[in-house]
Design brief:
Layout: E1 2-10, H1 14-22, H2 24-30, E2 39-43, E3 50-56, E4 63-74, E5 78-88, E6 91-93, H3 97-100, E7 105-115, E8 118-127, H4 129-150
Antiparallel strand pairs: 1-8, 2-3, 3-4, 4-5, 5-6, 5-7, 7-8
């Protein structure tokens, strides 16, 4: 497992960055960089809650994604997602080689208020070696999209 880190400065208050990142409508927009067919979440951002990150596979059209748990949620400061399993054709999978090589893994977001209208967002992702290069290309695009949305 490899940790990959990203950081972006957004000219918007931390509350706006947090809300834009997590609200259903805007989440669907900035995460298009990860899945052009669209992705969304089902569940809650509350600490300890189960949450699914799902979307249609661009090649097969089947429903896929990840089953996770919110490990930590300190509004406007820190969010930690613990990824536990895969969703394949709508079925949750928690064991087997396709899961055991990376689960559990974490995705952490740290929000830092630079001033009343500027936020630094740091993202730390545990990535399987197989996907690290792909994520290294996708994350900066997704964060640029989030920045653009927040700065409107």
């Amino acid at each position: 497992m490899k940790k990959i880190n990203f950081e972006i400065t957004i000219n918007a208050p931390v509350e706006k960055v947090w809300d834009t990142m997590l609200e259903d409508k805007t989440y669907r927009e900035w995460t298009l960089e990860f899945n052009p067919s669209g992705s969304w979440y089902e569940g809650s951002w509350d600490k300890g809650s189960k949450i699914k990150f799902v979307g249609a596979d661009p090649k097969t059209g089947l429903l896929g994604g990840m089953t996770s748990e919110i490990a930590e949620n300190r509004p406007h400061e820190f969010l930690s997602i613990k990824h536990l399993g895969l969703i394949t054709d709508g079925v949750e999978i928690f064991s087997g080689p396709s899961v055991e090589q990376w689960a559990p893994s974490y995705e952490n977001y740290t929000f830092s208020k630079i001033d009343d209208n500027t936020t630094r967002l740091e993202v730390e992702v545990d990535a399987n070696e197989e996907y690290a290069d792909m994520f290294s290309k996708m994350w900066p695009k997704a964060l640029d999209k989030l920045k653009s949305m927040c700065e409107k």
